[in-house]
Write a structure and sequence with these properties.
Layout: H1 2-15, E1 22-25, H2 27-40, E2 53-57, H3 84-91, E3 95-100, H4 134-141, E4 147-151, H5 158-164, E5 167-170, E6 191-195, H6 198-208, H7 226-230, E7 237-241, H8 252-267, E8 270-274, H9 283-298, H10 325-333, H11 336-348, H12 355-375, E9 381-385, H13 400-404, H14 411-416, E10 420-427, E11 433-440, H15 445-456
Parallel strand pairs: 2-3, 2-4, 7-8, 7-9
Antiparallel strand pairs: 1-3, 4-6, 5-6, 5-10, 9-11, 10-11
């Protein structure tokens, strides 16, 4: 019975409320939907995702629930339309349990930047779950829902998936509609999926991957065929492997796990091909210049005029006191990490610096994309760690640059627009999950899921 499963999830949410996986739980609405699903199960009216319980990151629009982006500037805001992914999941029979916690405006790698408080790793609550989609990863890993949606701009699905020990998919750019996703960096953002099994991920992917005329970046051939791919035997395939020199920034246990991961891929038919990805040292600076520049532009709409939070005017009548409502609103409404990235993005777009930074980053992006295209002429998938370390402790990393470097192995997939999947692969000596990553050529999402399914059997 769907209602019984949902009640189990609701109970788990209450029992583990200290993990702060959710910003909003719709117990009444989800139970009503579950009761309706029970009436359809086993009949001709049953739908492909009937009774699948889903968490939705709090930057994806869902009517009837808040849309806050874990920020004071949107706290209490209610959207008036559904994201395309929400419509497709609902039409397929999914039940929305609530909205999941996140780093403010999806800017962070630890889920410590949230107005609702930091989400916590379910394996060790003293550690971070990763970010920015940390709440979604926690909810799935802790058994509080079946699957969850997140957004991945530079690793924000894959990194928390690795830290929490679940699967995390960033699809090919353009395969999943971004309509209804609050924009951080529009050329990099992609809605992704968390799950405990490859089959649940594939079922969900097939529903949400499709062309959407409401999204100008949606590809006309976006339709998902992942379940068909899982039903086919896996033929031999070539695996791109990082040279050891490009693993120097990883913990020793991550390096060892990576070598074991390559061996596991060999056991299911993979042929390793050591092939370096050139200019890896440019990935982080290229990503952060592009992402912050786009964030500076996208977040300009939060000005206190049209919707969301507005700072109170000072209680005086002086006409020329220098008060500016927009400045006051953005100063009070945005957190420190969001302000840092807006300022950095504004700087790289400013007169006299745009060519030196932003234009160079665009050129670097082209070279990174061309390098990947060349690599995927020689291999079918590329294997690398998802993260250089396992989950670190809450408050352990205070240097923003050090935090950004935790995205070293994830940002390149967003820069190039290719699909990437984090696969849970054992634990370290502390019992913390390790994630390994599979990357593929454009529109090879199904191949990644097929390889992951074979690894799991």
């Amino acid at each position: 019975m769907v209602t019984e499963k949902l009640q189990t999830y609701l109970n788990r949410c209450d029992e583990r409320a200290d993990l702060k996986a959710w910003t909003f739980v719709d117990a009444e609405g989800s139970m009503h939907a579950a009761a309706e699903a029970d009436e359809r199960v086993g009949t001709a009216m049953e739908r492909p995702l009937e009774g699948l319980v889903v968490g939705v990151k709090d930057n994806i629009s869902l009517v009837g629930m808040p849309l806050s982006c874990a920020s004071n500037i949107l706290k209490g805001f209610r959207p008036v339309y559904n994201a395309t992914v929400v419509e497709r999941l609902r039409d397929a029979g999914a039940i929305f349990l609530g909205k999941t916690n996140m780093d403010e405006f999806a800017m962070g790698s630890s889920n410590e930047h949230s107005v609702y408080g930091a989400a916590r790793n379910p394996i060790d609550p003293d550690r971070v779950p990763g970010g920015s989609s940390g709440g979604s990863a926690v909810a799935v890993a802790d058994g509080q829902c079946d699957v969850a949606l997140g957004s991945d701009t530079g690793g924000s699905v894959r990194q928390p998936a690795a830290f929490c020990g679940v699967y995390g998919l960033k699809p090919t750019y353009g395969r999943v509609s971004r309509y209804g996703l609050v924009a951080f960096a529009s050329s990099l953002d992609q809605i992704g999926i968390f799950s405990r099994t490859v089959s649940d991920m594939a079922r969900t992917f097939d529903v949400i991957a499709a062309h959407d005329p409401m999204d100008a970046t949606s590809h006309p051939d976006a339709a998902g065929t992942a379940m068909d791919a899982l039903g086919k035997p896996l033929s031999t395939f070539r695996v791109g492997v990082l040279p050891d020199a490009l693993l120097e920034g990883c913990d020793a246990e991550i390096r060892e796990a990576y070598h074991q991961f390559v061996q596991a891929l060999q056991q299911i038919g993979g042929t390793p091909v050591e092939i370096p990805l050139p200019n890896i040292e440019t990935w982080i600076p290229t990503y952060f210049i592009l992402a912050t520049a786009e964030a500076s532009s996208n977040l300009a709409r939060f000005d206190g005029v049209r919707y969301g939070f507005r700072a109170d005017e000072p209680d005086h009548d002086a006409p020329d006191d220098g008060y500016d409502m927009t400045t006051a609103t953005r100063s009070a409404g945005f957190g420190s990490e969001v302000k840092r990235r807006i300022m950095l993005g504004t700087f790289v777009l400013s007169s006299g610096y745009k060519d030196a930074y932003y234009t160079k980053a665009l050129q670097s992006r082209r070279l990174i994309s061309e390098a990947y295209a060349s690599v995927f002429e020689q291999v079918d998938v590329y294997a690398m760690p998802t993260t250089p370390t396992t989950a670190f402790k809450q408050g352990e990393i205070t240097d923003p640059v050090q935090m950004w470097l935790s995205d070293l192995y994830t940002v390149s997939a967003n820069i190039a627009g290719i699909p990437a999947l984090s696969v849970p692969f054992g634990t370290d000596g502390k019992g913390l999950p390790i994630g390994m990553q599979l990357q593929g050529a454009m529109f090879e999402d199904e191949r990644l899921l097929q390889v992951a399914q074979q690894l799991a059997t």
